[in-house]
Each structure stands twice: as structure tokens, then as C-alpha cells.
Amino acid sequence: MSRRLIVREESWDIGGSFSITRARKWAAEVLMVEIHQDGIRGRGEGVPYRRLGEKLESVGAQIESMRKQIEGGMTRAQLQTELGPGAARNALDCALWDLEAKRRQVPVWQLAGLPEPKPLVTAYTIALDKPAAMAAVAAEHARRPLLKLNLGGPDDLARIRAVRAEAPEAELIIDANESWTPVMYAEYAAELARLSVRLVEQPLPVGQDAALDAVGRVVPVCADESVHDTHDLATIGRRYDYINIKLDKTGGLTEAIRMVQYAQERGIAVMMGCMIGTSLGMAPAFLLGAYATVVDLDAPLLLSHDRTPSINYADGVMYPPTPELWG
After folding, report:
1. Who contacts 16 (Cβ-Cβ below 8 Å, separation ≥6)?
2. Residue 326 has pLDDT above 60, yes or no
3. For position 22, what pLDDT does the model report?
């Protein structure tokens, strides 16, 4: 077996900027991985998860630490035991899936025993800003069926009210990004229900999940930063109605499939989410959209330009990726 691993840092400009409570971004910084074998190329993309201290340099170093094994024929199963969850394993895992699919001329969804991909309704994310600014974005995108609001401050209810006024027909999901306290959640709950908020993502800081046990849930609660892989899900998943599965957290499609299965067995709803990346990063996650009650894979829409070929988005719907892109 003769394999060659190529690793490349890439930067994709965001249209304007994108803000959450912890940071403002002007570009999506990604690690592109290519695995070449017998004239065939498999690709994967990883986005450093800065919440866990990942950076392009550290993720790149993790990938390089696997070079000898990958070029020597390492399998996906072996990768799971040799590298922990995170962007590095995601990029390598997805590249191995893509390589196998192309070598065997069978799509990844068939290899993995997943349903044939069909179009998905995805959320459109409105970045954290002042209420009036978020309302203006909501007015521009009011025709979309699902809007997601990034929150994180004392004006959060004002932000939600302002968006709801401009997008009365859209479903709303909100991401507090660990910025609330249990008291804030309890005080906000009735108003969130009145404003027809569908779910609240990660209202409390990581480590304070137990406080949810004492809080009545008028609106479903979704874990994001609190749950990365199956181990985390087994530990605290019972405290949440939803889990947000992101491949850069799980460390690839292989572990994400296990998480979906685990959640289904325990009656926990799934939200498929993403970091800010290109269509190459969305394509593997798309395959699990059939199991998700909520899909939030809109990152390419936030970029000034995307890869070619790319996933097709239209009127809040995203369409299955082509084999030329991935899988």
C-alpha cells in the first residue's frame, strides 16, 4: 500500500464578521487533509475548536503525529484509539471515509449503513449584536423557515423580541453560549415560550449542568459545549433534551454515528451543528441530518465564497453533496 498525506492550512473570509460571546471572527481557519492512494484522493476538513484551546498549529501538529501511521495504512477504527476527539481526528476520519468511498465506488452513506441523503431544512444563524442590528438581519432573512440567534448578554430578551417582530413566521432557536445563570434561565423561560422559541442551546456554563435538574423546562434545552463525544453523553446527557453533534467535537463521522445511535437508544433528540467552515466540512455531517430534529449546517452561507464544487443552499434548504465534493 502506498499512501501520501497532504495537510494544508486554509483561510476563508467571512462576509463581514461573526460574533459570539467569546470571540469575533473575520475568517474561517481550517485544516485541509488529503489522503492519496492508487491515484485516488480522499479529503477532510477540520476547524480548530478554540473553546478547548485548539489552534491551527496544534491541530496541524496532531495530524502530523499520525503521518507515519496514516501513510502506513491506518484504518478508521485504529484512528479512533490513537487520536482523541477534536478537529485533527475529524479531518483524518472524514478523509479516510471519502477515500474508501471513492476507491470502492460506493457512497459513504451506503458504506456506513445510513439513509440515502435527502434535502434538509437548515437554520440560518444571526450573529450576536445589538437588538436592532439583529432585527435588521432577521428582516432580511424572514422568509427562511428556521433562524438561530447567537446570544450572550443582558439584552438577550430584547434581542429575541426584536428578531421575532421582524420574522413572525420563522421558527427560532437560540444559543446562549454558556452566558446565562440558572436564575436567568428560570426568569426568561416563560417569555421564551411566549415568543415560541423552539429550544435553548447551552444556557449554562460547562460544569454547571447539574443546576438544570432543579429548573423546570418550559423550553427544551440542548447541550453543546457540555457534550463532545459518547463518553460525555453517557455522563450528563440525561440532563438535556437535545445534544448538538458537531464533527469537530466528536472527532469525525465515525464517532458521530455512535453518538446518534446512543442518543436514539435513550430518547435524546439530536441537533446537527457545525463550526464555521466550508461545504467540505458540512458534507459528512449532512449524512446524519436524517436523524436530527434540528439541523444547523449553514456555515458556508456566512462565507464570502465557498469551495467549488459546494453544497447547494436555497431558501433555507440544503441539498445533498455531490461525490465530487465529498463522499
Report:
1. none
2. yes
3. 54
